Amino acid sequence: MSKFLDFLNNIAPEYLLLGTFVVLIGVGTLLLMAPNFTTQGISAINALFTSTSAACVTGLIVVDTPHAFTFWGQLVILILIQIGGLGVMTLTTFFAVLSGRRITLRDRVIVANTLNVNRYGGIIRLLVAVIRYTFLIETTGTMILFFKFYKYFPRRPWYALWQSIFHSVSAFCNAGFSLFSNNLESFASDPLINITIMILIILGGLGFVVLSEIDFNNKPRWKKFSLTTKIVLSTTVFLIVASFAILMAVNYYYLHAKMSIGSIAWISLFQAVTPRTAGFDTYPIYHLPVASQLLIVILMFIGGSPGSTAGGIKTTTFTTILLRTVGYFRGKDEFDFLGKKISHSSFRKSVSVFFLSLLTILFGLFMLTITDPNLQFKSSFFEVFSAFGTVGLDLGVTSSLSSAGKIVIIFMMYIGRMGIVTVFSIFLRRRIALYSYPDEDIMIG
């Protein structure tokens, strides 16, 4: 036992982070295959896929969750979502704090890597804030949803409560799992359910560092926010507003003969929020216009914000590259945002994340076209982006994937949740160069 503990203490934080999720997925797979957790049994590959999708807070499904799993199976999925959203090491360290155990510098480094934070000072206060905000937000979401679900199921109050808890946790953790066979399509025009789910998704996608800076107990002060928080909030509002306007215009053009403008507005607003990166839907994605599907792919690729439960390249990466590109054409060597200069190291990291993410997606798409050649390219394209962005939206083909195709998507979900930087840092160890070569301009464009 002592040798095993010594091994854990000596393992690099990146390996420990990746390993804990593998263990979580493995335990979840075994539990889902156990008796009384499914209604009619489940194959090993489908159990692995479901466990990975839940632990990586994705929401892609190969079996109908409410019918394939008993209450205990659904509970396992919910626990996987909660642990996967917060991170195994985050919860482990939090319970260590409660027990009074001394928190070492290594513990702080691991939690910082889990939460995608670049500082170690104050990390325990942030950790406590993470747990506190998670409990408060999910509890509030549960109460609001119960108020509505109870009206839909007045004779089944415990069923309404379970639906409320499950959907509140799934929405805040940006998982997209639902206990309704048609997801949330039955509530497409219900304002309270739509607004509650969207707020939970947005709060979960902002990131815990941003939530701790906002501090809902006090009046938020814009001037005191860090540059990261300002970029996250500004980009989030811009993406939601711009996406809603585009989706509203496109959807109205194609769907106005089928439904009212009010229904189209609710569907468009919901789909402007959920691709970053929750995976709920109030209207079948495969029935949306191709232009809307393409915009959703772009939103899935951008994803949420650093240190959140969301996936994608993150809003800060998107904004940094966008600002640098605009600055180049304006002839500016340095680029800023709201009176603050963004460092060149942040830009270099953003470009690396963008390039490696795109390369990973292309590789996943290449593999999926080999394993499942009968799939339409559009469906494969959408599926891979959804898996990497840990979104969970699909064009109705996930359950028909071959076993090899499911393995491809499993790896995409895993890499998307772990983060491209964490995964590639293991294979591409960074070294400090002690010398440099002379530079020379080359022809570009």
For the CA atoms, what is the radius of gyration? 22 Å
Please give the oligomerization state of what you see. Answer: single chain
Structural class: mainly alpha
Total beta strands: 2
> Taking all residues together, what is the mean pLDDT?
84
Strand order of the largest sheet: 1-2
In a nutshell, what does this entry contain?
Helices cover 64% and strands 1% of the residues.
Account of the 3D structure:
The structure is a single chain. With 445 residues, the protein is mostly helical. Helix content is 64%, strand content 1%. It contains 19 helices and two strands. Strands 1-2 form a two-stranded antiparallel sheet. α2 runs antiparallel to α5.
What's the arrangement of secondary structure elements?
Elements: H1 2-10, H2 13-33, H3 44-55, H4 65-68, H5 71-86, H6 88-98, H7 105-114, H8 123-152, H9 157-172, H10 191-206, H11 208-214, H12 227-255, H13 261-273, H14 290-302, H15 315-329, E1 336-337, E2 340-341, H16 344-371, H17 377-388, H18 403-418, H19 420-427
Antiparallel strand pairs: 1-2
Helix pairs in contact: 2-3, 2-5, 2-7, 3-5, 3-18, 6-8, 8-9, 8-10, 8-11, 9-10, 12-13, 12-14, 14-17, 15-16, 16-17, 16-18, 17-18, 18-19
Index terms:
mainly alpha; 19 helices; 64% helix
